Amino acid sequence: MSSTRMLRALPAAHRERLLRVAREVPLAEGTRLFDEGGRADRFWVVRTGTVTLDMHVPGRRSPVIETIGFDELVGWSWLFPPYVWQLGAVATTPVRAYEFDAPSVRSLCESDPQLGAAVGQWVGKVLAHRLQAARTRLLDLYAPYGSGSPR
After folding, report:
1. What is the 3-state secondary structure (H, E, C) of 83-146?
2. What is the separation, in whole angstroms, between the first and last Cα of the chain?
3. From CA 71, how far away is CA 96, in angstroms rounded?
4. What is the distance, to the nearest Å, from the Cα of residue 76 to the centroid of all Cα atoms in its chain?
5. Closest CA relative to residue 105, chosen from 35, 11, 22
6. What predicted TM-score, i.e. pTM, was given to this entire model?
7. Alpha-carbon span 77 to 40, nearest angstrom
8. CB atoms < 10 A from the CB of 8, how many?
9. Lowest mean pLDDT segment, chosen from 35-49, 71-85, 102-116, 132-146
10. Quick one: which of 59, 73, 86, 74 has its CA closest to 141?
């Protein structure tokens, strides 16, 4: 299990506080959750199904960076100004997810520093993981053979 999953990353009390402001949403297969460069005003935690993250590469089809599933966070750009999506996301199967209003969660985090620190740590771990996934995927696709191997 990855420490980027909500159940493992956040203590139960913090998860419960966040889930109180969430709403459950169904997302049909093919639903575009967001596009790179769009306003990041919400985020999701997947309950069932899968979502892929993609990245715009000029002159090429947007490559899939990562596939996200159960209990994983979809979207981190909502936490950092200027609140603009850095990747794109699409539901690749029917998805059930918790949807969160980003300004409400940011306000909740500001009013409870312990919750804010826990959410910041969680999102930071997700961000580090996604950055590595993007690097690896782009090297797999576009770099000369062997240039992406660890030092």
Report:
1. CECCCEEEECCCEEEEEEEHHHHHHHHHHCHHHHHHHHHHHHHHHHHHHHHHHHHHHHHHCCCC
2. 26
3. 11
4. 5
5. 22
6. 0.84
7. 6
8. 12
9. 132-146
10. 59
Output the six-digit token pair for 44.
Answer: 């999701």
Q: Structure tokens of 100?
A: 């969160």
**What type of residue is 116?**
G
pLDDT in tens, 26-54: 999 999 999 999 999 999 999 999 999 99
Summary mean pLDDT of the chain: 88
Closest CA to 36 of 14, 11, 63: 63
Q: How far apart, in whole angstroms, are the C-alpha atoms of residue 58 and residue 72?
A: 28
- The CA distance from 69 to 5, in Å, is 9
Whether residue 151 is predicted with pLDDT greater than 70 in this model: the reply is no
**Angle in degrees, CA 124, 64, 70, rounded to 5:** 55
In SS3 terms, 59-97 reads as CCCCCEEEEECCCCEECCHHHCCCCECCCEEEECCCEEE
Comparing CA positions, the residue from 11, 4, 19 lying closest to residue 108 is 19
